[in-house]
Design brief:
Elements: E1 8-14, H1 18-29, E2 36-42, H2 49-54, E3 61-65, H3 72-82, E4 87-90, E5 96-97, H4 101-111, E6 115-125, E7 131-135, H5 141-147, E8 160-162, H6 163-168, H7 186-195, E9 199-211, H8 217-220, H9 222-241, H10 247-255, H11 263-280, H12 285-303, H13 308-319, H14 327-343
Amino acid sequence: MNLAEPLITVLMPVYNGERYLKQAIKSILNQTYINFEFIIIDDGSSDHSANIIKSYADQRIILVQNKKNLGLIRTLDKGIRIASGKYIARMDADDISFSTRLATQVNFMEKHPDMGMSGTAIQIIDDNGKQGSIVTFPNNSSVLKWHLCFYCPFAHPSVMFHTGVAKKAGGYFSKNLIGREQYSAEDYDLWRRISAISNIHNISEPLIYLRKHDKNLTKIYELEHHKNSVIISRSLMNRYLKRNPPSSLVESLVFDHKSGKTREKEVRLLCDLYRGYLNNNVVTNYENEAILADLLGRLKKRISYFNIVEILFVLRRIITGMNSFVILPYTMFRKVYIHMLFKSGIR
């Protein structure tokens, strides 16, 4: 092992994380892959986090102590600046990585140089380590880029990204979230920008235990986190629509609000977004079928508000103005969609 040239930088910020910190550190030090540096940045903790980190003699650990609390975004960008690895693997101080995580991810990244980042499926655990459900995400790059329009299909602490790509994308600092940085979703916006310049992927097997507890930032600031997600989703939709849709309409799409007052506008926006996405991306028939399946699910939640004339409008709106390469998938779409309408009882 040549620590002067580690292939991977494991980047883990810590702020008052003493409760689970030893488990997180141990899971990284026990990786089957060993050519990495482990940058741990203590962001001004007032508990025993720093002392816990200092208790480890492993030469791969690089402890950086912020003189004052900088917040998560500035701390992560600091880590990107000082990282030596070709790849950066994110890690949180309350999670646990499987022992084969780094080996699996770096093997994938090295075999797929077109990939700017890869996440993994996750195994949920609670604050006591009790295992819950396994959560998987789409893995195909084109399908993931479509899903990004509506939510973040990556578990942040599972992600490994190419250091150079992250720097090119601007790091974690987000112009969209200025003044709202403390409410998180900084990862979602970075993935948005990375997706514009490279391919993205999720490995289907779980490689990390992700801990859910009451002190998760997304739990503490749940409402404001949702607002940040809408801001990022709206920015992504603008990429394909060439216009900014109303925030209230994007929020209804992202969180599936029950009110039927905006359903017609939601259907129009979904149709336009799908058309704009295909006109701006080269996708295979297989990828288009997966994207259509997601679109159909979103339309089905809203279609009961319409009569047959409006249903026909949906079909026409989707196909009008599309590039010729989507005609064959549209034939499949028409069959599946009409079948869905009859199953739902609409005539």
